[in-house]
Design a protein that fits this description.
The chain has about 230 residues and is of the alpha/beta class. Helices cover about 40% and strands about 20% of the residues. The protein contains 9 helices and 8 strands. The protein has an 8-stranded parallel beta sheet with strand order 7-6-5-4-3-2-1-8. The longest helix has 20 residues. It is globular and about 50 Å long. The two termini are about 15 Å apart. The mean pLDDT is about 95. The structure holds pyridoxal-5'-phosphate (PLP). The site of pyridoxal-5'-phosphate (PLP) has 13 residues, from strand 8. The site of pyridoxal-5'-phosphate has 13 residues, from strand 8.
């Protein structure tokens, strides 16, 4: 799969370039390969070619791929759950994922905490913020974010590791910049509160169309589907 190697090399180079442009260490950028609708054999190949982080947005799809891939893959892959998560699906993924990017309510967090406790795990999560306040998007509003995080700091089997957002759809990457800046600022404001058990070190923002802008604005996790695996 030559195209895959070329795509991965290109995206890695572009990520390095963006990091260097703003004097950041390129090694701190994690590229999550977003593999919704991508077949398991392609995911394995991507992993061989150096994509160690895989993101899925549906619980069932993640579970199916996890069982086919992890059997002969020595668990090299870190699985990220990046989509809207219904509370009744938490128990299916809790033992499989390394990071849930999409916590946006206390109710969901309580369920994650409960299911994580049952398997003696502390689940790393990001809080998803609807930074542009779009009706169509999941995520908590900026106003309510601080309060949610305060509540999450009391849950022993959840560890908040940062924030995640999606910028509004646009053909122009520069339009995303204002939203990425807002998320960065929000994370600094929350960090300054020094809540127990809350870390704001991770910012998951930027996709195929705008990941370079996101890195310039402080993203350390970018979620890339189309540019690696082709148009869905
Ligand atoms: C699909 C998806 C992505 C990747 O989008 P591309 O534009 O294909 O890179 C990133 N984040 C989330 C939450 C997604 O659902």
């Amino acid at each position: 799969m030559k195209y895959l190697k070329d795509n991965i090399d290109e995206i890695k180079q572009r990520a390095v370039k963006s990091a260097k442009k703003v004097n950041r260490d390129p090694n701190e950028i994690i590229i999550v390969g977003v593999t919704k609708t991508v077949q398991s054999n392609v995911i394995k190949e991507a992993n061989k070619l150096g994509i160690n982080d895989i993101g899925e947005n549906k619980a069932q799809e993640l579970c199916e791929k996890y069982s086919t891939i992890n059997v002969d893959n020595n668990n090299k892959i870190k699985w990220h759950f990046i989509g809207h998560l219904q509370t009744n699906k938490v128990r299916h993924i809790i033992d499989k994922v390394d990071l849930i990017h999409s916590v946006d309510s206390y109710k969901l967090a309580l369920e994650i905490n409960k299911r994580a406790r049952a398997i003696d795990k502390v689940m790393d999560v990001l809080v998803q913020v609807n930074i542009a306040e779009e009706m169509s998007k999941f995520g908590i509003s900026i106003d309510k974010c601080d309060n949610l995080i305060k509540q999450l700091s009391d849950l022993p089997n959840i560890k908040v590791c940062g924030l995640m957002t999606m910028a509004p759809y646009s053909d122009h990457p520069e339009e995303s910049r204002q939203y990425f800046r807002k998320l960065k600022k929000l994370s600094i404001d929350i960090k300054d509160k020094n809540y127990d058990n809350i870390n704001m070190d991770n910012l998951s923002m930027g996709m195929t169309g705008d990941f370079e802008v996101a890195i310039e604005e402080g993203a350390n996790i970018v979620r890339i589907g189309t540019a690696l695996f082709g148009v869905r």
